[in-house]
Automatic annotation (TrEMBL):
Keywords: Hydrolase, Signal. GO terms for biological process: carbohydrate metabolic process. Gene3D superfamilies: Galactose-binding domain-like. Residues 195-294 form the F5/8 type C domain. This is Glycoside hydrolase family protein.
Length: 1117
């Protein structure tokens, strides 16, 4: 008979150093949890700054990584204003350094990879010619009278000296175009130095700065000879924080606001406004800016453009779901496609058009393409160049071979097994919407000619608003598919051909379908920042889940200058824990700076950016090593089996697209329900319908499908959704309404209509998620009965269910009454801080769910693992205060008692376990009379008696007040035999610690405590009689850096440049690998974070320090 384990709750305190009886590992997973494999260790980005590289420094850096438990590194070369060293990017000397790093990595057992180009974004270099660079459609416009025409057509924008023609088209001029050509403005500006002719020439290959006067907003004024109706504004500019307001005036002097103009990002350092609106009529208009702005092009026009043409044509990234309606043009604003004439063959190479057109006014558009002008960033002068064409495989192959190909060849020859991966990091390069042969590619993909539809790319309406929208839908689809296949997928193919894997961050400011890209990379990579909401992991996580990729990496703990040298593992832990609940299972630290000169500390930085994850950190070898072990344990657990999620969100077919977060859907998905996103490819080709669930080949299953951004879809996708609904899978969300694309046949449209009529009643709306899940009979996977839902992760293997969650409150201990959707198995607590495993002694199992109480200290985390059958277990039925009840490896109940008294524990057998404890010793305070030694090598040596515990930063001696590093606290304490018998546990509670404590008892290392509460189990290290204790306390670099600011610099004239590349050179003493010049300062760092009067950081061991005792009692039948 199935035995129900009846109980109310068990409170298990999960701290940071285990104090209770541990169960010995019984299988490989438990063993690997205690000692994770090399492949589960965290990795780091390894930044060589501005050519400052030495073999000696590389060896020391990599040895330091290996020693503390870093599994591998990904080498970058970036600038960020750091003065230049002697190693030039892609030079023989540079490749010699990379090869040395590879050889050392192989010696040390570290995995090794490189970024694909100089800088962190994205794929470019000096070997990329303008013809091979990213391309964009450009055009010029001329309004001319019909008849015999001989006219020189203005060449459109020509960036980087490169331009090629696509086509010349003519159509009867729209009234608005005639108005623009006849009613030209006089243009003036608040800044007389602004080159108004340059910024209104219809091109974006020049620029001029509009400078603001003190306390005044700068403006550009358009004065027309007669009233003019303006319907659109176009502005291209370089300043990300600039905004523009359209104003009008009746007298040219007093202006009123009309509208803030909509801004989009078009490139790494370029933004655009291409806003349309209902007509505004006046003779006087102004564009008022909020600040000084560098302008490339400014235009006001009577034309009514399609809404957001920059986004709709893949120059800016506006996701399909965020595109506003294309607009409703008047009839005289629409071009008749039958009247468009292709005059391409009648223009010569110099732009002279000779042709004959019917009478009337004609608009002649000269279309071509040029470079987008995007450069890889932030790169050195030697590594900086145009971004390669993302839509062209031949162009990208040349880029790959120019650097990565050499790296592969050189490293494989010297260290065959070292190089294991390469990366495409942040995509920040903006859009691209043309490549060689684009017209043929488009016709092959979509079945119709794009050339005669080019006016739509220029923002005009052709045929109708609906037809124009459909053409642009198709156009974006072709662009995004080419980006996926010819850039990201091809990168992976080239890497794999060379025997390495690809890392890719599958998102960014460009025409990207994030989940598609996640599917074509070996290891998808998200990112999260310290102490910020997570907003850039879901594409990597869902992409990996739906394509069956086991490792999901993340650029981790990226930080702003406010963190600087103050950062330490305890400060970062909850950000990492949150990343785990979002599905990340590999941390790639941002960042480790290569310390080319090993004589200085804290040394090299990435200017002011990133978590200072460096071997020169004071905490590197103690808290660092402990934290990395914690990360390895957790990462390994979160790679087991498959993820468990109930909801599968379909992101739609419109492009570009990305993954949804729980708050992106309405109503928001509660944290008690986990979900993944799915794209069209997986919905069509990888997912099966089994027992009314959606199931992936790896075994991941989903209980319902949620349609998002699905009003417009293809016929094949609509068929698949109907098949899913008819297969018994609940379908919710947005019912499809419109057939995607321009070229659908009448037969296809009829079939689509019939299919949607059948599908419509099968797609339900979500009123609220609790009701939906209840009606479907789906219980929450993890539910907190006494608290708001928490983010959590759940993995499932053939034999285990593995849950992870953490206490996000970093101040208060919290008790969680958790219910898990697992029945008849013993809940086990696996603590990643120390690798301990304990089996719960009190839990409930009912209706396929198991409940237990888990107490987590502030910021603590836990894995709850279900693997062993609970049907024959005798356990307690209710919790007793001052007891922790758990099961031994043999499934025998035991109790850890913290307070003397009599106890009666009800058992599932119907008996009571009655016992009394009277001999728990009283706590001992050992806070006084410590001998404290500060290290001479860290600048302020000496030994002092501390009669009481004090904060170093408040000490009267400057040598302690400004001390940074590790100090040793020593004393003796006495224990009797009653303190050390076999049943007694001895816990050392250190009270307040800033920031890390390593405990040594009787000459043996006990462990490192790096998170509050600072408690350490020292039972196995103490003895009756006198005991010697040493506590090594480490603080941050901050106080010493602040103290050094009191003295003049002794850095040989070091000077930090502005962000990005610089002409400055590192001082000779640094590049010669020598100690810094003599002086009072003992620190050197390449970026200033502190001033001499900045507040000091609390430091040292503040206590109170207490020995606490408990008894462990085993149940005997």
């Amino acid at each position: 008979m199935n035995k129900l384990v009846l109980s109310f709750f068990l409170v298990v305190i999960v701290g940071f150093v285990s104090c209770g009886e541990e169960s010995k590992p019984t299988n490989d997973l438990a063993q690997e949890f205690m000692e994770p494999p090399q492949t589960s260790k965290p990795k780091t980005w390894f930044h060589a700054m501005s050519g400052n590289m030495t073999k000696e420094g590389l060896t020391k850096d990599l040895e330091a990584m290996a020693e503390v438990g870093i599994g591998g590194f990904l080498l970058f070369n970036v600038t960020q204003g750091i003065p230049n060293g002697p190693i030039k990017y892609n030079s023989p000397e540079h490749h010699e350094m990379i090869a040395h790093a590879a050889k050392e990595a192989e010696r040390l057992g570290l995995s090794f990879g490189v970024h694909n180009c100089d800088g962190w974004s994205s794929s470019g270099g000096p070997w990329v010619t303008p013809e091979e660079s990213m391309k964009m459609v450009v055009w010029s416009e001329t309004v001319a009278d019909g008849g015999n025409i001989s006219i020189n057509l203005k060449e459109p924008t020509k960036r980087e000296g490169f331009y090629k023609d696509i086509a010349v088209l003519a159509y009867p001029a729209l009234d608005s175009e005639i108005d623009d050509s006849n009613n030209m403005p006089v243009i003036t500006a608040s800044d007389a130095e602004l080159d108004t002719a340059l910024i209104t020439d219809g091109k974006v290959d020049g620029e001029s700065t509009l400078t603001a006067k003190k306390d005044q907003s700068p403006w550009i004024q358009f004065t027309y000879q007669r009233p003019k109706t303006i319907r659109a504004a176009k502005i291209i500019f370089k300043d990300r924080h600039s905004t523009a307001m359209l104003q009008t005036s009746a007298d040219g002097k007093n202006f009123t606001d009309v509208r803030n103009l909509f801004k989009v990002r078009t490139g790494k350092g370029e933004w655009g406004i291409n806003d349309h609106f209902e007509g505004v009529t006046s003779s006087y208009f102004r564009l008022k800016f909020n600040r000084s702005t560098t302008l490339k092009e400014v235009q006001l026009t009577a034309n009514y453009f399609v809404n957001n043409p920059l986004g709709r044509t893949s120059i800016a990234r506006t996701e399909d779901k965020d595109l506003a309606l294309i607009g409703v043009p008047d009839g005289n604003m629409v071009i008749d496609p039958l009247e468009i004439k292709n005059l391409t063959g009648q223009m010569d190479a110099n732009g002279l058009l000779q042709t004959e057109l019917p009478p009337g006014r004609w608009t002649i558009m000269r279309f071509g393409y040029t470079s987008t002008g995007a450069f890889n960033n932030p790169a050195s002068d030697e590594g900086r160049g145009l971004e390669v064409d993302k839509l062209s495989r031949p162009a990208f192959k040349k880029h790959y071979d120019a650097f990565l190909g050499q790296v592969v060849e050189n490293t494989k020859a010297l260290a065959p097994n070292a190089l294991q991966y390469a990366e495409i990091d942040s995509y920040e390069m903006g859009g691209q919407n043309w490549t060689v042969g684009m017209d043929s590619i488009f016709k092959s993909e979509k079945g119709y000619d794009v050339i005669t539809r080019l006016p739509v790319i220029a923002g005009r309406f052709v045929e109708s608003a609906a037809a124009s929208d459909a053409v642009l839908y198709d156009y974006r689809d072709v662009i995004t598919n080419l980006m996926t296949k010819n850039y990201f997928q091809y990168f992976t193919e080239l890497c794999n051909a060379d025997g390495i894997q690809s890392y890719i961050e599958p998102y960014g400011f460009g025409p990207l379908n994030d989940l598609d890209i996640g599917g074509v990379t070996d290891i998808p990579m998200g990112e999260f920042w310290m102490n910020r909401p997570i907003t850039q992991t879901e594409s990597a996580v869902s992409g990996a889940h739906i394509y069956g990729k086991p490792i999901i990496s993340a650029e981790s703990f990226t930080s702003t200058p406010q963190i600087n040298w103050k950062g330490h593992p305890a400060m970062a832990k909850t950000s990492g824990d949150l990343g785990w609940t979002y599905g990340i299972n590999e941390f790639m630290f941002h960042r480790f700076a290569h310390q080319a000169n090993p004589h200085v500390a804290p040394g090299m930085t990435m200017n002011r950016w990133g978590f200072h994850f460096d071997r020169t950190q004071t905490w590197w070898e103690n808290a660092g090593a402990a934290w990395f072990k914690y990360i390895a344990r957790g990462s390994h657990m979160l790679r087991q089996g498959v993820p468990v999620s109930d909801v599968l969100i379909y992101v739609g077919e419109g492009t570009p697209n990305s993954a949804y977060y729980r708050d992106d859907v309405s109503p928001a998905i509660p944290k008690s329900i986990n979900f993944d996103n799915v794209n069209t490819d997986v919905l069509l080709n990888r997912i099966a319908i089994k027992e009314k669930e959606l199931v992936l080949p790896e075994g991941t299953s989903y209980k319902l499908l949620l349609l998002q951004n699905s009003k417009t879809i293809s016929l094949r996708t609509a068929k698949r959704i109907l098949e899913i609904a008819k297969g018994g899978v609940p379908v919710f969300g947005e019912t499809p309404q419109k057939l995607a694309g321009y070229a659908a046949t009448a037969e296809e449209r009829k079939a689509f209509g019939a299919l949607i009529a059948e599908l419509k009643p099968l797609v339900k709306k979500v009123s609220d998620w609790e009701t939906v899940m209840e009606n479907l009979g789906i219980k929450p996977d993890m539910e907190l009965l006494n608290d708001a839902p928490l983010d959590y992760a759940h993995r499932k293997t053939a034999t285990e269910d593995i849950y992870f969650f953490f206490n996000p409150d970093t101040v208060e201990t919290k008790t969680f009454h958790a219910q898990f959707r697992v029945g008849n198995k013993i809940p086990e607590l696996w603590n990643p801080m120390d690798g301990s495993i304990t089996k719960q002694g009190v839990f409930t199992t009912e209706n396929g769910r198991t409940g237990t109480h888990i107490q987590l200290d502030a910021g603590a985390s836990i894995f709850v693992v279900f693997r062993e059958d609970a049907n024959t277990i005798m356990s307690a039925t209710q919790h007793q205060q001052h007891l922790s009840l758990r099961l031994s490896e043999e499934h025998l109940l035991n109790a850890t008692v913290v307070e003397n008294g009599s106890y009666s524990v009800p058992l599932t057998s119907g008996d009571n376990w009655d016992f009394a404890v009277t001999d728990i010793p009283a706590s001992q305070d050992i806070s006084t009379n410590w001998e404290v030694t500060f290290n001479q090598e860290q600048g302020y040596g000496g030994t002092l008696p501390f009669d009481s515990l004090v904060d170093w930063s408040n000490h009267p001696l400057d040598s302690i007040k400004y001390y940074s590093g590790t100090a040793s606290y020593k004393k003796q304490f006495h224990l009797s035999e009653a303190h050390t018998d076999d049943q007694t546990k001895v816990i050392l509670d250190l009270g307040t610690v800033h920031i890390v404590a390593e405990v040594i008892v009787n000459g043996e290392k006990v462990g490192v405590s790096w998170m509050p509460p600072f408690r350490v189990d020292i039972t196995d290290y103490v003895k009756s009689g006198e005991n010697q204790i040493e506590i090594l306390i480490t603080n941050q670099w901050s106080n010493r850096l602040i103290g050094d600011e009191r003295y003049p610099p002794n850095d040989g004239g070091y000077q930090l440049g502005p962000h990005r590349a610089t002409d400055l050179t590192m001082p000779a003493w640094y590049t010669n690998n020598e100690p810094r010049p003599k002086g009072k300062r003992t620190t050197f760092t390449t970026a200033p974070f502190y001033k001499k009067d900045d507040p000091l950081m609390p430091s040292g061991l503040l206590g109170p320090i207490t020995l606490k005792f408990s008894k462990t009692i085993a149940y005997k039948q």
